[in-house]
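Hey L., structure's done. Input below.
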Amino acid sequence: MTIAKNAARKGLTLIELLVTAVAAVVVVLGVVSVIAYSHQGYNRLFKRTTLGVVPDAYQARLWFDTIVRRATVQRLDVGSPRNNGYDELYVYYYYVDPLTPDSMLAQIVPNKYARFWVSGDNLLLSRGDIQRWTIELDDFPEFAGDPFTIVLAKDVDVGSTPGIFTPQGNAVRIVLTLDNETDAAAGVSKIQTLRMTVTSTALRHNN
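Output:
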């Protein structure tokens, strides 16, 4: 009597297992490559938008708008005898105690100043006290003590515009070009660099 062999074979052959394993490895490597590339792209975009030109441009515009809007319309100085009149802005504003009587407000003169100025490729902001205020344009106000200075923006391209600050009546316009792309540091990708121009006009509100 002949015993029939089981025609239904169970399990996989070694060749089938190898083919399946290779296919799985290819899929995993593809997914890992996509994730790694996406992560690198995210890091480049994050650096581009949170370091360097972009945040500097927003910071410079914010400080410029905030301070100029507080400034007096009586006087401003674009440039001065101290810096050959180029890429420099002086505005003057008040610090008034909230308890000051209304009858004394008309007698108050600006007692604070802010200076936006360029040194090298940095845009700086200096703030300090006015020791002697004058409205005459041929007589520069006297300042008291040393100013407090911060860097608002780096990589300023001074040669891109004839002047950064332009008075327009009671308003002041700033045209600021920042560029860390033209002379990018070694090893820095073009994707991580940028050249941009920010323009803002702020109106002086105080009398």
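Helices lie at 14-50, 53-70, 102-105. Strands lie at 71-78, 88-93, 112-119, 122-132, 142-153, 165-168, 171-179, 195-203.

-- N.
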